[in-house]
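Q: I'm writing up a methods section and want to include an example of the input and output format. Could you take the sequence below and give the corresponding predicted C-alpha cells, formatted cleanly so I can copy it straight into the document?
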Amino acid sequence: MKVAHTYVATVEDRPGALNRVVSLFRRRGFNIASLTVGTTECPGVSRITLVVNSDADTAGRVKANLEKLVDVLQVQDLTGVAALTREYALVKASVPPEKRPELLRLCSVFRARVVDVSPATLTVEITGTPDKVDALLEVVRPYGIAEMVRTGPLAMGRGAEVNEIKVQAGMAA
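A: Here is the clean output for your methods example:
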C-alpha cells in the first residue's frame, strides 16, 4: 500500500548537490511527489524536504540510497512521527467585484491574506498544513482559479529535540 513518506535531507550547499539527489530518484524509478529546498541555520548547508508516495519497502530503499550520496550529510524520516508540516500557496481567483466580499469572508476563515487585486482577479496567500491549503483550494475552486502555485511541504520534527546538522571538518564551509 502506497503512503506519503516525508524525508528531510541536509546536504552540502554545492553546485550539483540537488541534481545528484534528483538523479538518484530518476535512476531508481522513484517518483517525487514534492520537493522543497532551502537554506538552514548552518552556512553551507541546505535542507531538502522530499515527499515520496511509496510502499514501506521502497521507502526504506529511498532513505538508504539518499544516505549513500556524497553531498548528503544526514537523512531524517518524518513519516509517522510528531512533525510540523507547512505549505505556502498563492491562489489567483477569477472573481467579479460583486462576488469578492463573499470570497473574502471564506478566505478569512482560513486566515488567507489578499496580496493583489485587479479588475478581474483577486490573489490570496495562505500558509498552513497541506490539508488547510487543500481546503482553501476547494472553497476557491467554484469561483474559478486562474492560477495557483504551491511550495509543497516543509517539515521539521516537533518538540525540544533538535536535528543537529553533523558537519564534518572541511565540509559545508
